[in-house]
Design goal:
Order of helices and strands: HEHEEHHEHEHHEHEHEHEHHHHH
Number of helices: 15
Largest sheet: 8 strands, parallel, barrel
Helix content: 40-55%
Shape: globular
Strand order of the largest sheet: 1-2-4-5-6-7-8-9
Strand content: 5-15%
Distance between the termini: 24 Å
Structural class: alpha/beta
């Protein structure tokens, strides 16, 4: 991999990062455009090249892919594989999957010099994550979430950098009540903001419960970021209006179009659902410059070219 545009956690001589005023960022962007634009943490996809492109097209905050904290802490090889960053890249939040407070705290302290904030994944619905008591399993363990956040905040190497959580809605008949209570407890223990995917871990393609996200937003003092079915700039603005959230996070939508939040491109094309050809070219050039693995770049291009290729062409390209 090219080292011209990336550095890893074990690099020496890394300069001190400027402190990001996230509270100021949320306030400024709410005043200027209504919300903070966020690129979601996505396994395999939220790598340096992609983050560089989305940041140039209207994204305010980017996340790393979800990183399993236990392997990150214990393995140099895992650290090099799981995390890279570009010089002066920011605001950048590293997301960890963890189930042990000491491990989450150690991972946060280890990565803190290279990022602007850390996030605990409490929303991954994949079977392997649930089976390992990671991701969305944690929404039923509010005491454990609070313990992990508190222990991480106590690490000297983290300083004043924010710790956030990303959740799904709690399962069960008392979904909204339990989720609000979870978020209030997280707020009380010092979480800086909460990102909410508007589905439970069992819900895959149903319409997100935006009214539940609004209820959470109305119950908290800290910023809330809404996530779920943001496939266009129109979607983002509709969800921001209906939930009152401070930020809007896109995952699948921004994979299809890294310029989803770019208002100038939207005004030119009158749509933000499809990726412009020049943005596809921009990603290819960035991926080459950053030494992105061919398999990862290929997967990105599958999403970006979906609207261009015929079914037979997509079948051939996806092989």
């Amino acid at each position: 991999m090219s080292r011209e545009c990336v550095e890893d956690v074990d690099s020496e001589g890394v300069g001190e990062r400027m402190v990001v005023d996230f509270n100021g960022l949320f306030q400024r962007q709410r005043e200027e455009k209504g919300y903070v634009s966020v690129c979601a943490p996505m396994v395999r996809y939220s790598k340096v090249a992609f983050r560089n492109v989305v940041r140039r097209h209207g994204v305010d905050v980017v996340f790393t892919p979800m990183i399993v904290a236990e392997t990150f802490v214990s393995s140099n090889r895992a650290r090099e594989a799981d995390f890279m960053t570009a010089p002066a890249e920011g605001p950048l939040v590293a997301q960890f999957a963890a189930s042990k407070p000491s491990v989450f705290a150690a991972a946060c302290e280890m990565i803190a010099p290279y990022v602007d904030g850390m996030d605990l994944n409490c929303g991954c619905p994949q079977k392997w994550a649930m089976g390992d008591h990671l991701g969305a399993h944690l929404v039923t363990k509010p005491e454990l979430i609070a313990d992990m956040v508190t222990q991480a905040q106590g690490r000297r190497g983290i300083g004043d950098k924010p710790i956030s959580i990303k959740i799904r809605l709690c399962p069960g008949k008392e979904r909204d009540r339990d989720t609000v209570e979870l978020c209030r407890r997280a707020e009380k223990c010092g979480v800086s903001w909460i990102s909410v995917h508007g589905r439970t871990y069992k819900e895959k393609k149903s319409t997100p419960h935006y009214h539940s996200i609004k209820l959470i937003k109305d119950s908290l003092q800290i910023p809330v970021i809404a996530n779920g079915d943001v496939f266009s700039l129109e979607d983002a603005e509709t969800i921001a209006m209906s939930t009152g959230c401070d930020g809007i996070m896109s995952a699948r939508g921004i994979l299809r179009n890294p310029a989803l939040f770019d208002r100038s491109i939207f005004e030119e094309n009158k749509s933000s659902r499809n990726c412009p050809l020049d943005v596809i070219e921009e990603y290819v050039n960035e991926a080459i410059a950053c030494g992105t693995l061919t398999t990862i770049a290929h997967h990105h291009l599958i999403f970006m070219t979906e609207h261009i290729l015929s079914r037979s062409d997509r079948h051939e390209f996806n092989r």
